[in-house]
UniProtKB/TrEMBL annotation:
Organism: Afipia carboxidovorans (strain ATCC 49405 / DSM 1227 / KCTC 32145 / OM5)
Chain segments annotated as transmembrane: none
Protein name from the UniProt record: Pantothenate synthetase
Function, in words: Catalyzes the condensation of pantoate with beta-alanine in an ATP-dependent reaction via a pantoyl-adenylate intermediate.
Misc: The reaction proceeds by a bi uni uni bi ping pong mechanism.
Keyword Repeat listed: no
Positions that bind beta-alanine: Q66
Annotated metabolic or biological route of this protein: Cofactor biosynthesis; (R)-pantothenate biosynthesis; (R)-pantothenate from (R)-pantoate and beta-alanine: step 1/1
Database matches in SUPFAM superfamilies: Nucleotidylyl transferase (SSF52374)
Gene responsible for this protein: panC
Entry keyword set: ATP-binding, Cytoplasm, Ligase, Nucleotide-binding, Pantothenate biosynthesis
Subcellular location(s) of the protein: Cytoplasm
InterPro entries named among the record's database cross-references: Cyt_trans-like, Pantoate_ligase, Pantoate_ligase_C, Rossmann-like_a/b/a_fold
Length: 284
């Protein structure tokens, strides 16, 4: 267990003072942006950050601009005490915990226009507000913390590609690093939203990952992509999901794959069981 609790900053002056302390002796800094409700997937990001830099900053901020009015901003789990204890155990150096009034003060009027991976017809088709909200909060966090590296999970794969593109295009500075998906023993991708699943839904939820594994196996064997994706979609819906998409895409651009096996591929899916929307992806 870590010998001391992390520094906690909730104002910009406190953040800057804390960062000056961390950066003494030219220490490198990694940022792990989160919305709290930390699980083992988040902890894996923290551990990767510790391998990539001398000091680790974790931000905890439930970002209102990436939620549509009908989505779960108000009910999104907020577990500060548990989160802080977990980060202390992992030896995190600083927690950046701003509130919405600091991040979006009265009169805030700036947005970031996104194309490329943000308009791939995946999450953007079903949550058109989402990446605009992600882009502005990530840009602000990178400007506030000025990390050398920032860690994002591969579970939100399109988000990872959007953030990577934006950071490169705007010369924001840090290297963006993707961390592998962490899964429960039955294959379900770890997510804060898994807490919403009823016992029956939690039992059924791993069918999403099982179906995707089957699709990837058949695609790698050279089966017809359209027929394989159609069959995979049926497996998912038969398990009780409402499917938003099941798509084979180029792993970097997220454009439709022209030839399976000839270019890096990623299978991406989003589906709702009950009222809980789950996303997942796998390398093809």
């Amino acid at each position: 267990m870590a010998s001391s609790s992390p520094l906690v900053a909730r104002t910009l002056p406190a953040l800057q003072r804390s960062l000056e302390t961390l950066r003494k002796r030219h220490a490198s800094v990694a940022l792990v942006p989160t919305m709290g409700a930390l699980h083992d997937g988040h902890i894996s990001l923290v551990r990767l950050a510790k391998r990539r830099a001398n000091k680790v900053v974790v931000s905890i901020f439930v970002n209102p601009t990436q939620f549509a009015p009908h989505e779960d901003y108000g009910s999104y789990p907020r577990t500060w005490k548990t989160d802080a204890a977990k980060l202390a155990t992992e030896g995190v150096d600083l927690i950046w915990n701003p509130d919405a009034a600091l991040m979006y003060p009265e009169g805030f009027a700036t947005s970031i226009h996104l194309e490329g991976p943000a308009t791939a017809g995946l999450e953007d088709r079903f949550r058109p507000h989402f990446f605009g909200g992600v882009a502005i909060v990530v840009a602000k966090l990178l400007a506030q913390v000025r990390p050398d590296v920032a860690i994002f999970g591969e579970k939100d794969y399109q988000q990872l590609k959007v953030v990577t593109q934006m950071t490169r295009d705007l010369n924001l500075g840090p290297r963006i690093v993707g961390a592998p998906i962490m899964r429960e023993r039955d294959g379900l991708a770890m997510s804060s939203r898994n807490l919403y699943l009823s016992p029956e839904q939690r039992k059924a939820a791993p069918a999403l990952h099982r179906s995707m594994k089957q699709v990837v196996r058949l695609l790698r064997q050279g089966e017809d992509p359209a027929a394989t994706l159609k069959a995979g979609a049926k497996l998912i819906t038969d398990a009780g999901f409402k499917l938003d998409y099941l798509e084979a895409r180029h792993a970097e651009t997220l454009a439709p794959l022209s030839q399976i096996g000839r270019e890096p591929g990623r299978l991406l899916a989003a589906a709702t069981i009950g009222t809980t929307r789950l996303i997942d992806n796998m390398k093809i």
